[in-house]
Specification:
By secondary structure, this protein is an alpha+beta fold. It contains 4 helices and 8 strands, in the order ββββαββββααα.
C-alpha cells in the first residue's frame, strides 16, 4: 500500500497521509471522528482514527483500502462503513502494532468481513 490516498474528483491525484492529520472521518451514517497524529507512526497502510468523546474516546486503526475518497476542500475522509462498525474495531494498541504480526491482519479482517457496512 502507499502513504497517499486518492483525492475526490481527481482520480489521478493523491494526498499524503501527513496532510490528513486532524481531518474529519465520515462514515455512511455520519461523523466517526478525526484522523489522529499517531497515524504518521502507522503509515503507510493504516490511519489511526480518534472516535472522540471524553468518556468513550477510543482510537482505532483504519486500513487505507477502506477509504472511499478524500474531500480536500472540507478536509474529510469518507469511508463506506457505519459509525458503529468503525467504533467496534479493536482498540489501537501502539505495542501490538509492532510486536504482533496478526494485529493488523485482525484489523483488516474486521473491515473485510463487513464491506460497506
Amino acid at each position: 500500500m502507499t502513504d497517499r490516498l486518492p483525492a475526490s474528483g481527481t482520480p489521478k491525484s493523491h494526498i499524503p497521509v501527513a496532510r490528513l492529520l486532524d481531518c474529519a472521518v465520515e462514515g455512511s451514517d455520519g461523523s466517526i471522528g478525526t484522523v489522529d497524529a499517531v497515524s504518521e507512526e502507522v503509515a503507510p497502510d493504516h490511519l489511526v482514527v480518534d472516535t472522540g468523546g471524553t468518556l468513550l474516546s477510543k482510537k482505532v486503526l483504519l486500513p487505507l483500502w477502506v477509504v472511499s475518497h478524500v474531500d480536500e476542500a472540507t478536509r474529510t475522509v469518507h469511508v463506506p462503513h457505519t459509525k458503529e462498525h468503525v467504533r467496534a474495531a479493536p482498540r489501537f494498541d501502539r505495542d501490538l502494532r509492532v510486536t504482533d504480526p496478526g494485529y493488523r491482519a485482525h484489523i483488516d479482517e474486521h473491515y473485510a468481513d463487513h464491506p460497506g457496512s
